[in-house]
Specification:
Four copies of one chain form a homotetramer. By secondary structure, the first copy, chain A, is an alpha/beta fold. In chain A, 32% of the residues lie in helices and 20% in strands. The first copy, chain A, has two domains: 170 residues, NAD(P)-binding Rossmann-like Domain (Rossmann fold, 3-Layer(aba) Sandwich); 163 residues, Dihydrodipicolinate Reductase, domain 2 (2-Layer Sandwich). In chain A, β4, α4 and β5 form a beta-alpha-beta unit. Chains A and B meet through β8, β9, β10, β11 and β13 of A and β8, β9, β10, β11 and β13 of B.
Chain lengths: 354, 354, 354, 354
């Protein structure tokens, strides 16, 4: 493949966020990547290693201002890492510019702005009206375990939310195998570390508020809800309602989701696990636990793995599907790189097995 | 009341456990209590303040060997704090001895040995055959918010489990008001701090295993399951199946339970909260949160409070009931003292509002 | 004493800070205290139990605006809990007003504004010029283990800093016994939990910055340095220079200080410990560890205790003096109450042995 | 170099320890390494990915029994990762066997057994008599920033202790530049995460003991003391006494050491930092902080970096040298790989810039 003869020229827009930091760490050691440009509105002109101290002595590239022409000209792929909503306008403009100039540039968007196919949901769950339905339609939902072939040919990839990645991956084999009770809804409970809240100071994310505490938040109203529902619907070919209840706990990285759904017939945990292994037989980043074992965050921290464990509760005919990911890796940056690998014809594990 | 003219003479059997440490802390400042004797098999002859370092300079009483006659003679009430199962035999003997000698001694058992009314459940959930059905029948389940009047007259009180206390209190008003869907089961998910595992070293509870991690355990098979089911059945006058899924998180004290159950009709969160406030109007240790607010462990740490928050999810017609307690206080030691207060005719808050 | 016939009427100025929260918790269960008024500039009109959620259902008193006349008229003692510097002006005014009106009110100031006898040090270490040298002169340094008799008669008590309390108490017996090498300086290293930084959001105190990290700060320039130097000088009758190096670690409450100083002759740890025990024989809140044992924060959390352990290192002829306190209790609120107890002729442990 | 034409065949003896886990993670992605064999006494026959769950799906190699002949025959380098003391005998035997058979195998020992040049110190600090003075003499102390050239030609490398690495690296430029006061001793205080205690369960390392606590231990008697003294003596050409005081804090990985020593003349922090930068100008893993900034563990976690910050305290003429490393990486496994890289003529950063 021609791309392998030279490096992929990569740009990162919004290089000062937590997930951008992880992204830069991964990209800086990716053997087919050359970092072409970084932009940051708040920290223009700073070295990446100053913004993200862990990158000191590793990455000396400086951030520049956001210049659309330069981005389109100098990059083969752009990771978009600005906050939700804020980025829609710029992204749409970039994408349009690329099309106009005939650029072969690809976009991987880490925000939520192009994840929901039904544009009207943005108003309801994110509070803004989506202004680019054309691009929304074009965007491929970047969950490689479900959409590998679409991602291969995609120009615009909407990188999934962290909770969504974790919940969807843990539930997909149930729904794909039509095991769920049709009347049932899905309860998804999630426990996330403090990195989920980003870097911006506010009262809720102070150490004094998190230490020795659990903080439930946005119960039933978290905007990853419709994203999970959208993908479960694709898998099951019917509408599925999700009650999503996240909380923050005193650790730094990673998350666990526990999802509960009624099944339509009696089964065993062993049988369910067999279906999971079959469903994910070609997915190098999915690890299915043995019966009686459950995923633990410590085993996925700093990796692109998603560990999944299942318990079938015969007393209530309910399946508990648990999954762990690192929210900044498989939940954001390393999944974005996995998408890049696929979109550029590389091995999907390239630069990600560390 | 005559008892108020003199101190209640208190004995603690099994004084070296974590919850015994909290119990001693509370009892040592309780104005109607005089600590009569402490026993410890593993740490006989040591000062309480050596076993529980936080009690240094506060409690100089030494533990003695376990001598039934002396216990019956010198105490008005005995707190039993030995491990589950181990304690059954001794307790039955003590109780029988008290009866034989006509002693007016009362027992408050912090273990699980007398919580389940159906003796056969012990074999299934705890792995031992219960050998004292008579005492089991006599034992009053010591959840003061539900059994105040029974506790008042009880000679033998089975102090509830920590998870059970938290889950039952958070669900009681729903069931008492017949709001639940009859076909539905209850999912209870719990997050507990490391003190839940006690003091004995084992691989699972090492700091290296807990830090930066979440550890799900005993999913669907935790022995507090039948205890919760027993009390929900009493409240709802029908069998209720519970799927209970606990996990350990990196903090020291306290727990959060989140319980999910389908309702039998549409309602609002505000209406549900009104019913909670009514149900607990005389319960000084229950605090009901406002709509949109959820309980946090940090507000109940070191107290006998149980904070409860509710969200009605209209999308799934499901109620989420969340509660926080300190597992060693309301989940063990301070609830035991609350039971003692009630059984001896004191104000139930005596010595517990700190 | 006449005061014991009725309650001490207590006011708290600046009732929304973290240490005010602890203060209110202690005062609300103190049997000789009646809370007369609370003021808060930022949260006027709110219930104490809303500002400090842990006090919900315990303290319903509402904060009012700051009205000097009312304070002077309605209180026997006022705890001043506003930030350093900000409070100086108001305090001076209050004190002057009290004097003018012949009020017998006492003041206990939790800020740093009256701790340093040499007014010029405020400019150097705190960055403001001290404007009330008369009141500064009158203020008694409220470390009860050293100044019990002065506190008894004091009208104005400057409650010590948290680090200072811990370091001074751990070093006092060495200096009082003239064991230190005269040429030597003292190194004090401290590890403090996140509550040391208060409640106001800023980048440094975000959970993401503290978790899985240690944050050294203000090395050699922390303003508790001159406070420690001042008291060590009083004890040793000569100038002592202190190099103070604090850091923040991922826990919530409490601190450990480790102080290092060369001795002027060879000695044993056992001998040093004997001198510590003698020095603190009448101090109910000081616990001296055995040889080979060191203080741990978990034993003092939520208490007014200061645990001290000492190691004499014969290889370097250096003494390591370690101490633990809870920064919000003995390092702030409970020490303030200890001072109140002494100043009002109560037992110094009154309301503090919990 | 010939070795680059084929992979380095690597063996790991004692593959179940925490640092072996990190070692395997690094080696499994090192492009010039082929893992030849793993041995484990306690977990023989298990896959690496079962012993170290984070390696699941990455490393399927199984551990075998310890067979000296096979090790000598199949490996170019052996990492020895068994506990201190236990390993001495086996190591000596292996090394002798290699010599006898004319094998070109190299050894990198992660234990303390060959770090101290003065064999008599083993009795004093580790409690065992060292039985192989010949091999001890031959062993090169594997701190690449000081002994690069010796390591290049070494057959037997004693990988430094974690605390020692951190303290020595932070002090070396001071001593190499003869800045220290000759009469002075060095105080080294260290704060380490819970991974420092390894995986074996014991009371001190239970989560309940570590959470919300700081645990000082082995004050003045920790066996890394003579190791630090040995290297400081080499640097300064005179005996230096060290008082070393470590403690454990509630985080998982990494450590901070703060070292204090008097200087022999007045200087500025800026001048000291200049000397540090010059001293480490060729050291790719040393990052020197700016004036007023201090190292933080979070920036070195999971890396081979050592971040160093310095404060010159003019008030006490004392230099504070602070350094952070990840105890399992630069303090053990990644430093061992850095040593391997150097000993096999690779770039020292090979496989370590992640």
């Amino acid at each position: 493949m021609s791309i392998l003869k030279k490096s992929i020229r990569v740009g990162v827009v919004g290089a000062s966020s937590l997930s951008a930091g992880v992204l830069l760490k991964i990209l800086s050691r990716h053997k087919y990547v050359s970092l072409a440009l970084l932009t940051s509105q708040t920290k223009t002109g700073q070295e990446a290693g100053e913004i993200h101290r862990a990158l000191g002595n590793i990455l000396r590239l400086k951030t520049t201002k956001y210049e659309p022409d330069k981005i389109i000209r100098d990059c083969d792929v752009v990771f978009l890492a600005k906050p939700h909503g804020e980025q829609l306008k710029g992204t749409s403009f970039l994408s349009a510019l690329a099309q106009k100039t005939g650029s072969a540039i690809k976009f991987i968007d880490l925000s939520a702005d192009f994840r929901l196919k039904d544009a009207s949901l943005y108003k309801e769950w994110y509070g803004f009206t989506h202004g680019d339905r054309a691009l929304l339609k074009k965007a491929v939902y970047g969950l490689p375990e479900l959409y590998f072939n679409k991602i291969k040919d995609a120009d615009f990839i909407a990188n999934p939310g962290c909770y969504s990645t974790c919940a969807i991956l843990s539930l997909a084999p149930i729904l794909a195998n039509k095991l769920e009770d049709k009347s049932a809804t899905v309860v998804v409970e999630a426990i996330c570390g403090v990195s989920g809240a980003g870097r911006r100071p506010n009262e809720r994310n102070m150490a004094i508020e998190v230490q020795e505490n659990i903080k439930p938040y946005k119960i039933g109203i978290h905007p990853h809800t419709p994203e999970i529902e959208q993908e479960l619907a694709v898998l099951s070919h019917r509408k599925i309602k999700v009650l999503f209840a996240p909380c923050v706990a005193p650790f730094k990285y990673g998350m666990l989701t526990s999802s509960y759904l009624k099944l339509n017939k009696r089964i065993t945990t062993a049988d369910i696990l067999k279906k999971y292994r079959a469903f994910y037989k070609d997915a190098p980043f999915i690890r299915i636990m043995k019966e009686g074992e459950y995923p633990e965050i410590q085993n996925v921290t700093g990796t692109n793995f998603c560990d999944i464990g299942v318990h079938y509760n015969s007393r209530t005919n309910t399946c508990v599907a648990m999954a762990c990911i690192d929210n900044l890796f498989k939940g954001a940056a390393s999944q974005a790189v996995q998408n890049m690998n696929i979109a550029f014809g590389l091995k999907q594990t390239e630069g990600l097995l560390f």
